[in-house]
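Dear colleagues,

As part of the handover before I leave the project, I'm documenting each prediction I ran so the next person doesn't have to rerun anything. This entry is a single chain, and its sequence is reproduced below.
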Amino acid sequence: MALRLHRTLSTSHRDRDWLDYVIVNGGRYVGRLYEDRHSRPASRWFWAITIYVNPQLGITTSGRAPSLEQAKAQFLTNWRKYCGEPAST
């Protein structure tokens, strides 16, 4: 099943322009990506797999990246490990 990115709706007027997404797989929330404007540029984007992942599998479930595209790629790499899919070429 394909992953989809949905923009979250902020309830705070101050945060409406901040980029914050949930990752959905088949109607189930499985992750999150958001911009942390208070962090260093090298770690501006936070990503996380938000469902339970057995720690014994050795899968990274969160991290930081300098761009949204890099954060999405890191999430996808670890999501594929979780799903048992081969890495893309």
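The chain has one helix and five strands. Residues 68-83 form the longest helix (16 residues).

All the best with the project,
I.
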